[in-house]
Amino acid sequence: MNVRIGIAGLGRLGRVHAQNLLSSVPDCSLIAACSVIEEELQFARDILRITYTFSNYEDMIRSDLIDAVFIITPSGFHCEHINLAFKYGKHVFCEKPIGLDVHEIKQTQQIIQSNQELVFMLGFMRRYDESYRYAKSIVDRGEIGDITLLRCYGIDPTSGLESFIAFAKHNFSGGLFIDMAIHDIDLVRWFTGHEISQVWAIGKNSLYPELDALRELETGAVMMQLDNNTIALIVAGRNAAHGYHIETEIIGTKGMIRVAQTPDKNLVTIMNAHGVIRPCSQHFSERFRDAFIEEAREFIRCIQEKRSPQVTAQDGLQATVIALACQESYEGNHLVQIDYI
Questions:
Q1: 54, 55, 50, 49: which is closest to 36 by C-alpha?
Q2: Does residue 190 form part of some domain?
Q3: Are residues 71 and 198 in the same domain?
Q4: CA-based torsion, 156, 162, 166, 172: positive or negative
Q5: In the prediction, which pLDDT does 172 show?
Q6: Distance CA 50, CA 43 (A)
Q7: Angle CA(157)–CA(285)–CA(287) in degrees, nearest 5?
Q8: pLDDT given for residue 341 in this prediction
Q9: CA dist 197 to 176, 189, 225, 229, 285, Å?
Q10: How many CB atoms within 10 Å of residue 133?
């Protein structure tokens, strides 16, 4: 079965997904693209050689051209776009987060649950990264004992900060915790199998203090307590001078695991007049290239095999609830208790 796909949104992440679908994901055809930005549609036609382009999402989604859609639109539109896709009988892959409003997400979750014949998958790509999956298998086998603490770093390179500033002046990302830390929030839930019960978040804007007025952060940190008293520490940011820094540490009663202790680009070590140098990854699409491809392949396999993916709408809901609680904690400077949903 060849799955015909339309993609909505061709920004930097949308282009990564589109190019993966065209070159690295078997049994599918990317034949349609939608964007409200003409330059993105031109890119789809001229560079990606996509046959059908649309400036209106509903026009693409209600057509008989496609079987499934990749939703890579701004976060605030995700629920609306998911709902329309299910209305017209399309399978859905949606980038994180599932939405920005808890009530809206719950309504969307009900729609997903009432259409079990359609596949819904959320883009928590780190679950499909080879290193994280290997670490998860070690944890699941009990090799490090009971988890006592997790420490997660997720920091974008400084090179992208100015473009984010320009974006933030006209759009709200949802805040650092929902825009970036949500991946680490998902990892905490995934590795432990437990829910986060309370959070305390802090943050600082150093290079661009004007972000204060935009409710955005350069650097934020969260201390978390899980429902079994496990501790989690998350640091998220947009200002890593050396490159794209993603690191996770899991401490247990019998040992510990570190995933990407340094953000190595590859296995090359350079020795010269400047010392011993290990090149760093510079972009999310470089560090998680294979994970993005594997999650797309899994989405196609789920459609073909008529089964549900590992990542659920409930995972998206819970991660959003926690991320919003982090934002509330930061803005209110107080500890926030989280109610399970």
A1: 55
A2: yes
A3: no
A4: positive
A5: 83
A6: 9
A7: 75
A8: 59
A9: 20, 11, 6, 9, 32
A10: 13
